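lol forgot to send this yesterday, sorry. struct tokens for the thing we talked abt
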């Protein structure tokens, strides 16, 4: 089989490997799809202490969300979700797999990055009817879902940020009322003339500063990502430094909460049910790009880091 490992140079590369032998309590899974996500840059750069995902070292196989079918045994052919993507076959502990629910019309829709967005906008920075919501990094895998979820949860106006004109147009097609590009401060003030009530922050950096300047009193901020640091051209990818005006945070009584859905089973189950309902009713989309073949995965990852795709990037294994 083939898998993607970290080469001695630190770059991901396709290598051939023997078929894994499942041990006690494991099943052999033939992967059919896996996702490409920007945070791998941080893991390849040495990771961050305390983060839920471990660093990747030379020789390690990359990992991430995958869907595959069980090979052999009484459950042969059953589709399951797990975290051992970036390889054609995986030996996965039974405790680490979840059956793929038939509630969604396409198994690939299970890769929709809505759990974090839904959890943040219902728990960390809950939306109230009529709120103006600002989603930074609104064209990525999480942001494309967050803008739609904000609207479905009752937001009155949804504004997003992105770095390119073609992504801005796609975001408007998804239902964003306005899209701002950098520099943000003046544009965000015009796009949200009544101020920002909720920030869903994927980016940090200048997006966070602009949100503070535009925030209303008692605004709620959910910080879920730090792409400004992770994808910085000259940075390490392991930090997200930003200088903010803390005086404004105090005066406006802004609440900032770092949020990760992580292993929150309650949020995941709630999101899965609502996503299936909204998707079947045609009220939400899953923007994604399909990349064919594991040999294309390393370039797909570089393209994600460079911001060349819209929505979630999924590698198909045929």
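and heres what i got for the seq, position by position
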């Amino acid at each position: 089989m083939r898998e993607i490992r970290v080469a001695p140079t630190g770059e991901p590369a396709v290598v051939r490997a023997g078929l894994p032998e499942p041990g006690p309590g494991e099943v052999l899974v033939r992967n059919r799809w896996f996702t490409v996500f920007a945070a791998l840059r941080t893991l390849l750069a040495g990771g961050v202490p305390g983060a839920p995902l471990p660093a990747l070292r030379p020789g390690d196989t990359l990992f991430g969300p995958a869907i595959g079918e069980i090979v052999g045994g009484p459950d042969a052919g059953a589709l399951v979700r797990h975290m051992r993507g970036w390889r054609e076959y995986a030996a996965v502990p039974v405790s680490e797999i979840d059956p793929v629910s038939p509630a969604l019309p396409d198994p690939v829709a299970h890769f929709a990055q809505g759990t974090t967005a839904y959890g943040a906008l219902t728990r960390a920075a809950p939306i109230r009817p009529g709120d103006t919501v600002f989603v930074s990094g609104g064209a990525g895998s999480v942001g494309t879902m967050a803008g739609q979820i904000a609207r479905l949860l009752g937001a009155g106006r949804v504004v997003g940020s992105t770095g390119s004109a073609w992504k801005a147009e796609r975001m408007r097609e998804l239902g964003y009322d306005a899209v701002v590009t950098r520099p943000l401060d003046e544009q965000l003030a015009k796009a949200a003339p009544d101020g920002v009530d909720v920030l869903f922050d994927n980016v940090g950096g200048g997006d966070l500063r602009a949100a503070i300047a535009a925030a209303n009193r008692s605004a709620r901020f959910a910080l879920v990502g730090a792409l400004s640091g992770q994808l910085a051209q000259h940075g390490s990818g392991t930090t997200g430094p930003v200088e903010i005006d803390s005086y404004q945070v105090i005066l406006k009584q802004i609440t900032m909460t770092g949020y990760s859905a992580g292993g929150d089973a309650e949020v995941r189950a709630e999101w899965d049910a609502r996503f299936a309902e909204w998707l079947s009713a045609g009220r939400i989309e899953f923007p994604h790009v399909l990349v064919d073949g594991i040999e294309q995965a390393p370039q797909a990852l570089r393209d994600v880091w460079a911001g060349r795709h819209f929505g979630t990037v999924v590698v198909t294994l045929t």
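DSSP finds ten helices and 15 strands in the chain. anyway ping me if u want another try
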